[in-house]
Every structure is written in C-alpha cells, then in structure tokens.
Amino acid sequence: MNFISDPVVARKKIDEKKLLVFDFDGVIADSVEVKTDAFAELYRPYGEFVVKRVIDHHRDNGGMSRYEKFYHYHKEFLGQDIDQEKINDLSHQFSEIVVDKVVSSVGIAGAKYILEHYCGIGKICVVNSATPQDEICKIVKRRNQDNYFSKVYGSPASKVENLKKVMSHFRIPSHDMVFFGDARSDMEAAYNTNVDFIGIGEKIRNVIHEYEGDRISLLSFNGIL
C-alpha cells in the first residue's frame, strides 16, 4: 500500500466524518520517548542488554498496553513468570515516573488547532489510548484538554474494543469515523473495525505498506487547516 501525504486530502477525509478518534502519545502529545525512558529505568537493574531489547520492542510496538509489555519482557527477556500483582506494581511505578512528564510534554504540531476547529464546528472527538483508563483521564484533564473530548478510553480494553465502544455509545457507524494513530496497533484496530485511518508521524509509514489500498499519512497536523 502507498501513503498519501497531502494535508488537503486529509482535510477532505476529516470533513466527511462525524466522529474523530485520537490516540494520545505521539498523536496529541509528543510523549513517546518519555515512556521509552520509563521502561529503560524499570529494566536497568537487569542489565543494558535487556534494556536495549526492551527499548527496541517498545519503539516497535507503540500502542501495546504496558501490562502486555511487562508480561512479554519478563517472560521473553528475563525468562521469568510474572503474576498480575507484579504487573500492577510495575504499572504503578511506571505511572509515578511518567505522568508529570507526559502532562508537560509539548503537543504534536497542529494538534491543538485541529481539536479547537473540529470541536468548534460540532465534530465529536474522543481519545483511544493504551494508557490505563484512570491515568489517561488524569493526563487529559491536567493538560486542560478534557473540554475537547466527549469520551476518553484507555486500557485494559484493547483499541479494537474501545473503537467498538465508541460506535455503540455514540451510535455512529464505522464509515462515519476516522482514527488518528502513530503505531501498528492503531492501524490494525482501524483496519479490523473498518474505520478510516490517518497516520501521524514518521514511524507509521513503515507499517502502511503492509496493508492493501492507499492510506493518508502525515508527519503532523500542520497544513490541514
């Protein structure tokens, strides 16, 4: 599949939709590396080789929940079983490291203006994030962006499950929605629910060619408005 990088085409697509779904890290906030550093900090006691594997996996699997990542890293990289209590403990430590930094992260270029414009003309905007539900709600509120979003969805529900919740809650069919994402999991969720997808950032372009048809892929929201 090829990608289309023309923001005018993106605007036409967005204008057709009733509901806009946004991933958060890497789409609304430039906060992906904040979480990379947090994973590195938590796994540094196991040595730099493990840290490198953790970082590489995290960067290649943006949008995968931290719960799944902790399970994977312990099992595959450390050869250790990990129970839910330990996963929850690691998640709490992770949250303590990242929340303030994500709140203070700069926004992705143009995101603020997109939200202001489309919310202002009556589009429904929601968040669909792999961050735990309570945490992403707290972050959105502390960034003073809760007025833009009618609903905020997080983990442990998957992004596919959350998209289905959006359709059910707002009674809007998939063809009236578009999902802005920066990771494979975002694109797969859109593909599996027949929701149009617009990629944000450089990395998603490495994934787009694996899917049939053309998809819109922009480095940021600049130029759409």
Question: How does this structure look, described?
Answer:
The protein is an alpha/beta fold and 225 residues long. The protein has two domains: 141 residues, Rossmann fold; 72 residues. Helices cover 50% and strands 15% of the residues. It has ten helices and seven strands. Strands 1-7-6-5-2-3-4 form a seven-stranded parallel sheet, sandwiched between helices. The two termini are 26 Å apart. The model has no long low-confidence stretch (mean pLDDT 94).
Quick overview:
The protein is α/β, with parallel strands linked by helices and 225 residues long.
Termini separation: 26 Å
What is the number of independent domains? 2
Count helical runs. 10
> Structural class given helices, strands, pairing?
alpha/beta
Share of residues in strands: 15-25%
Level-1 CATH class name of the largest domain: Alpha Beta
H-E order: EHEHHHHHEHEHEHEHE
**Which shape, going by the Cα principal axes?**
globular
> What do we call the CATH homologous superfamily of the largest domain?
HAD superfamily/HAD-like
Computed CA radius of gyration, to the nearest angstrom: 17 Å
Strand order, main sheet: write it out: 1-7-6-5-2-3-4
Per CATH, the architecture of the largest domain is 3-Layer(aba) Sandwich
Give the overall pLDDT as a whole number: 94
Number of strands: 7
- Strand count, sense and closure of the main sheet? 7 strands, parallel
CATH T-level topology of the largest domain? Rossmann fold
**Contiguous runs where pLDDT drops below 50 for at least 5 residues:** none
Percent helix among the residues?
40-55%
